[in-house]
Specification:
It is a single chain. By secondary structure, this protein is mainly β. It has two domains: 1-100, no CATH class; 103-190, Sandwich (Immunoglobulin-like), CATH 2.60.40.1120. Helices cover 10% and strands 54% of the residues. The protein has one helix at residues 2-20; strands at residues 31-36, 42-44, 47-49, 59-63, 65-71, 74-80, 85-91, 94-100, 109-115, 121-126, 132-138, 142-147, 150-158, 161-171, 176-182, 185-190, 193-194. The termini are far apart.
Length: 196
């Protein structure tokens, strides 16, 4: 009986040790989550990040307060608050810090659209143009909407002109999606966080 108890205790400790390796460690309580959009390479608080043209990088964890950021040729100090999510967008030789919305319901998918094009205002609609998902996103700004999980064709419009289409977008509940509109087209990136 003693050997059996020892065996069960050993199995439990091995399972716990294995489980610890499955997940990244939880970020410190005073952390913010920051990513770059539309930047081939950069550093956020000393952490390297990349985002292909028109896409969003993973979120990296940085301590609240000021931190150094460099994205392409643009560099500077940015200030963030604990528990919030941000996107850094290069604009010429300066960096623009946009506050991203928090996921309020894991029962929905969160769509965030970033207008990095020259269009004064952009709408995110179904590809047929009949249903508006997010309306009136000004140049250099973002807009968002929580939606049900669905597979849908989406498009960004400037007035009646389609700027780009995303076919067969599978929006899953509990996930966030970045739709980035540039003068070169429209891209979609599912959000993720890297805590290491």
């Amino acid at each position: 009986m003693k050997n059996f108890t020892l065996f069960v205790a050993l199995l439990g400790s091995l399972a716990a040790a294995e489980d610890n390796g499955l997940y990244d460690p939880a970020p410190p309580a005073n952390s913010a989550f920051v990513r770059v959009i539309n930047a081939p390479a950069g550093t956020l608080g000393g952490k390297a990040v990349t985002a292909d043209k028109g896409t969003a990088s993973v979120y990296v964890v940085v301590p609240q307060g000021e931190f150094d950021a460099k994205v392409g040729a643009a560099a500077g100090k940015l200030k963030v608050e604990a528990g919030k999510f941000y996107s850094v967008v290069p604009s010429g030789n300066r960096l623009v810090l946009l506050t991203d919305p928090a996921m309020e319901s894991r029962a929905k998918a969160l769509l965030v659209i970033y207008n990095l094009s020259k269009a004064a205002s952009v709408d995110l609609k179904t590809a047929d143009g009949k249903t508006t998902v997010v309306k009136g996103v000004k140049a250099g700004d973002s807009g968002n909407r929580a939606v049900n999980g669905v597979t849908v064709d989406l498009a960004a419009f400037a007035g009646d002109k389609a700027l780009g289409t995303l076919k067969g977008v599978k929006l899953e509940r509990g996930n966030t999606y970045a739709v980035v509109v540039t003068d070169g087209g429209v891209t979609l990136t599912m959000g993720s966080t890297k805590t290491k």
